[in-house]
Amino acid sequence: MRNTAKLTTAVLAAGALTFGLTACGSGKSSASHDYSGPLVVAASPVPHAEILNFVEKNLAKKAGLDLQVKEFTDYITPNTATEDGSVDANYFQNQPYLDDFNKKRGTHIVPVVTVHLEPLGLYSHKVKKADELKSGATVAVPNDAVNEGRALKLLADNGLITLKSGAGNDATPEDIAKNPKHLQFKEVEAAQTPRSLDDVDAAVVNGNYAISAGLKPAKDALVLESAKNNPYGNFLAVKKGNENDPRVKKLAKLLTSPEVKKFIEDKYQGSVIPSF
């Protein structure tokens, strides 16, 4: 049986309240260091939960790991749930995003092991090539700081815009130095970028949301991030202090096993790339 659950806002609110009153949630408090019971991991549905479910079904029992997967469709709750102890770990994000999240929200989440890269891509229902975008075309980009900067870098790397010198991971349209096509940018929640494709000329979409929407990054993207020297690998993460949880160590080893590498390569065909 797959130990997967969809969390609603009500359930999360109840979990947070319970943690506030008892110092523990469905995971264990880092203060108590009680590492008994199942390891509860928050994950985006695709590909993170799919990879974890492969581990749970095929590898965890033999390794003596009781793994439970909880799916989230946003990029905020997995970290806040890990911080408050509602879950033990999460698997959905990259280092620039986590750095920005910890800084802005005062959380204490740390990476454990990097597993894969989901190349960011530019997609369109209206043109077949990036250079076919007309003057004044509207491009949807994720509205969170890190993914927007990453999207703009993708466009810059492919000659559609030029960013100002020194523009970093938190670049915004204001950091564009040259925009020869006079592109207009529509900032939307990352999860909504695939749905925006009918309303804009093109959209920059995170790999997991592209796959969930039925897009094939390796085939459908007009331009796609290179995996070489890419800082956006996705990793297993925990609240600081729980890095030595023996359950987390078991999962980290399984997530970087030859079996998981083969699963990723066979299932995602280059749309998700192992980082180990």
Automatic annotation (TrEMBL):
Covalent lipid sites (S-diacylglycerol cysteine): 24
Residue ranges of coiled coil: none
Membrane topology recorded in Swiss-Prot or TrEMBL: Lipid-anchor
Alphabetical keyword list: Lipoprotein, Membrane, Palmitate, Signal
Main location: membrane
A GO cellular-component term linked to this record: membrane
Signal peptide region: 1-23
Cytoplasm among keywords: no
Subcellular localization(s) per the UniProt record: Membrane
One Pfam family from the record: Lipoprotein_9
The keyword Membrane is assigned to this record: yes
Family named by the database record: Belongs to the nlpA lipoprotein family.
Name of this protein: Lipoprotein
